[in-house]
Amino acid sequence: MIDEPGPWGTGPFTLVQGASSITTRPAIMNVEPFRASSIIESEQRDPQVVLEANLDHWNRAARGPASSAPCSATT
């Protein structure tokens, strides 16, 4: 879940515009052995988000992006 733009640094991309948030409820299906899932209760998503490459994540010499030019995704 990414609630708002910010330099989260948790992966190959950083959200710079828009938001995508999902509210879930845990659902335990079995105690032994433990099995669980999540039920989606609501979604709050902007129709468009903008991502930039998180240059601290990439090994640029071996495989990373050449630039941090933003890319856009529409849901």
Encode the helix/strand succession as letters. Answer: EEEEE
- The global form is flat
Whole-number average pLDDT?
77
Cα gyration radius (Å): 17 Å
Describe this structure in words.
- The structure is a single chain.
- It contains no helices and 5 strands.
- It has strands spanning 13-17, 20-30, 35-45, 48-53, 71-74.
- The strands form 2 sheets. A 3-stranded antiparallel beta sheet has the order 1-4-5, with no helix packed on it. A two-stranded antiparallel ribbon has the order 2-3.
- The radius of gyration is 17 Å and the shape is flat.
- The protein starts with 12 loop residues before the first strand and ends with a strand.
Topology:
Layout: E1 13-17, E2 20-30, E3 35-45, E4 48-53, E5 71-74
Antiparallel strand pairs: 1-4, 2-3, 4-5
Structural descriptors:
single chain; three-stranded antiparallel beta sheet; 75 residues; two-stranded antiparallel sheet; mainly beta
Short recap of the structure:
With 75 residues, this protein is mainly β. The protein has strands at residues 13-17, 20-30, 35-45, 48-53, 71-74. The chain has one domain.
